[in-house]
Inverse folding.
């Protein structure tokens, strides 16, 4: 059973000016558990809209979406929130860490909204998993960009979600940190985590195992990447070239 | 969502935005402090007034103030003579009157004992002083009719005056000089405390009225007289009769105002009740307005905060917060801040009330009622001022607020 199954999803916005924008025009996409899919597209291609729909932050205008086998079309906003909390981990370009708040508290944020009875130790565990076991009490301002994004990844992982949704996770980072972050994603994927990476950067997209090209609200290509691209040294090089 | 975890979140957020939290607390702090202060002092003042009125009057008495004397108002200009004979005549003609005591006073006479000198109020009274004013001696004895008739040079001393003159020495039996006249101390008065004007009523020396008139002041008038009426219900009727008799004796033509004033406990209590309304209603209302304004400030600050924290709100939504979780968090933040400011305000207001009370000689004025009202009011204002920002925050769409 695919973890994500989109069928003919379309989404139309009306701008405040009255102008209508067709962000998605019939996207069908199926992603299996354990995949690492990069969704690539220029700005305006509809990839942010797709990310919002995949992440249950927005609803499809038309078409169907099954997340982990569950049809999420008719569910209420609170059920959406519950599913976001349990099944999806988000990583954003801007990190979205709370300022003046320790790394650990940032990581524990999803647990506030979790139904788990016990949350002891989960935050520490997630931070150690991204190599920041020694930075738990640091505030974001005391961390480098790469470290901040690793805190954000730990936060995305703390609730053990089925799916990691990353929106331009390396967009605010230097080449070295970007490569590190991508390395973490690859490790997580090797450990079985499903990852959907959304980016405009072909070099970053190449870290995935499969690339879905989005243009003008439509999927224009969907192909696997040769195993050679998985080699990390090559990839770091590619990242630097892209800068 | 776990409510305790959410509550903890709200508490953690507050120190993160120190300046805003401080200003929001200040908003409810001022209102709560004003409310506590006003209610506490108001209660204290009213209690004090009622106590003093009870001390001075009891329920069934009439006070006659001669012209030129002052009591809760200015002196009267057109002087007429008010004498013991006047009161005697009144007592004879108005059968409801049970007892009476005339009064004359030197407001600040110099009193000496050996090398010690003090200024004290010297009061002249009759042998019925204890009965009529309900104030006796704790040691020694009061003077009797023969002392009054004979203008005896005996004195009852108040405890403040005694302390000033005798320190630890025993005043009983000692001699004191009032002006140039020697008196023998025969009694020590019961403690009275301060009166409504903040005057220490224990800094007094009471001597027979005749002695005061003839030997010290060289007058034959009295300043006031207190009449005890047999029955509380007769006070109004008796006071009409007293007025008639006095107008007759002073030959005041119809249409001219009295040259004396009659004060009854009922009249005083009405006056106190009227003043009490200012303390009970208007001042707390002003304080409540301050609190309401504070609430609006808090609401405005919180709205700004919602706009500043759109990113945070979007993030929390993405991480699984429901709209109501977001709203609840902002509501809790506002309410906790307001309540925190309220608590501080209550503490400072109570302390301020104690200070004011000390200055006004009201005695301790801590009021649970004031604390309760101020806390409830600041909590309610906090909740109300949190409603609009909380709704605004909850309505933000997660996809929009993450942009």
């Amino acid at each position: 059973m695919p973890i994500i199954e989109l069928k003919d999803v379309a989404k139309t916005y009306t701008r405040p000016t009255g102008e209508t924008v067709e962000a998605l025009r019939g996207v069908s996409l199926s992603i299996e558990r354990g995949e690492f899919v990069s969704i690539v597209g220029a700005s305006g291609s509809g990839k942010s809209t797709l990310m919002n729909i995949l992440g249950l932050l927005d609803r499809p205008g038309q078409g169907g979406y099954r997340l982990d086998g569950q049809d999420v079309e008719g569910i209420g906003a609170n059920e959406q929130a519950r599913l976001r909390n349990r099944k999806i981990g988000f990583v954003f370009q801007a990190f979205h860490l709370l300022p003046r708040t320790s790394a650990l508290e940032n990581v524990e944020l999803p647990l506030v909204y979790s139904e788990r009875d016990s949350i002891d130790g989960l935050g520490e565990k997630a931070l150690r998993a991204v190599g920041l076991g020694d930075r738990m009490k640091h505030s974001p301002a005391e961390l480098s960009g790469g470290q901040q994004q690793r805190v954000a990844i730990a936060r995305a992982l703390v609730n053990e979600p089925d799916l990691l949704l990353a929106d331009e996770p390396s967009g605010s980072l230097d080449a070295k940190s970007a490569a590190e972050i991508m390395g973490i994603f690859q490790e997580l994927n090797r450990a079985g985590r499903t990852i959907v990476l959304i980016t405009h950067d072909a070099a970053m997209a190449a870290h995935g195992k499969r690339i879905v090209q989005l243009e003008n609200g439509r999927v224009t290509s969907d192909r696997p990447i040769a195993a050679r691209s998985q080699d990390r040294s090559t990839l770091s090089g590619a990242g630097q070239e892209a800068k | 969502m776990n409510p305790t975890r959410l509550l903890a979140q709200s508490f953690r957020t507050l120190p993160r935005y120190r300046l805003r939290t401080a200003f929001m607390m200040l908003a409810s702090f001022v209102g709560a402090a004003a409310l506590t202060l006003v209610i506490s002092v108001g209660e204290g003042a009213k209690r004090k007034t009622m106590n003093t009125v009870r001390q001075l009057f009891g329920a069934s008495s009439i006070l006659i103030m001669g012209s030129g004397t002052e009591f809760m108002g200015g002196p009267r200009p057109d002087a007429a003579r008010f004498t013991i004979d006047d009161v005697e005549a009144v007592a004879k003609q108005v059968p409801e009157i049970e007892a009476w005591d005339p009064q004359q006073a030197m407001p600040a006479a110099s009193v000496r004992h050996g090398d010690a000198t003090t200024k004290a109020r010297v009061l002249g009274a009759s042998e019925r002083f204890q009965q009529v004013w309900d104030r006796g001696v704790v040691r020694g004895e009061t003077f009797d009719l023969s002392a009054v008739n004979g203008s005896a040079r005996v004195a009852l001393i108040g405890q403040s005056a005694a302390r000033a003159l005798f320190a630890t020495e025993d005043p009983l039996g000692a001699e004191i000089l009032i002006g140039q006249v020697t008196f023998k101390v025969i009694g020590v008065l019961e403690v009275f405390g301060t009166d409504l004007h903040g005057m220490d009523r224990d800094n007094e020396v009471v001597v027979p009225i005749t002695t005061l008139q003839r030997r010290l002041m060289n007058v034959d008038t009295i300043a006031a007289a207190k009449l005890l009426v047999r029955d509380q219900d007769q006070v109004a009727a008796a006071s009409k009769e007293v007025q008639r008799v006095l107008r007759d004796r002073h030959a005041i033509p119809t249409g001219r105002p009295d040259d004396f004033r009659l004060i009854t406990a009922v009249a005083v209590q009405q006056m106190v009740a009227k003043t009490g309304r200012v303390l009970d209603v208007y001042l707390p209302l002003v304080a409540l307005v301050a609190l309401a304004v504070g609430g609006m400030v808090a609401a405005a600050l919180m709205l700004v905060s919602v706009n500043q924290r759109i990113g945070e709100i979007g993030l929390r939504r993405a991480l699984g917060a429901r709209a109501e979780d977001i709203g609840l968090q902002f509501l809790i933040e506002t309410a906790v801040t307001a309540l925190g400011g309220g608590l501080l305000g209550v503490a400072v207001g109570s302390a301020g009330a104690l200070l004011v009370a000390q200055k006004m000689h009201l005695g301790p004025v801590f009021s649970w009622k004031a604390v309760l009202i101020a806390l409830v009011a600041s909590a309610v204002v906090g909740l109300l001022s949190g409603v609009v920002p909380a709704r605004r925050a909850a309505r933000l769409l997660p996809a929009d607020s993450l942009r």
Q: What stands out?
A: The CA atoms of residues 111 and 118 of chain A lie 9 Å apart. Chain A has eight helices and ten strands.
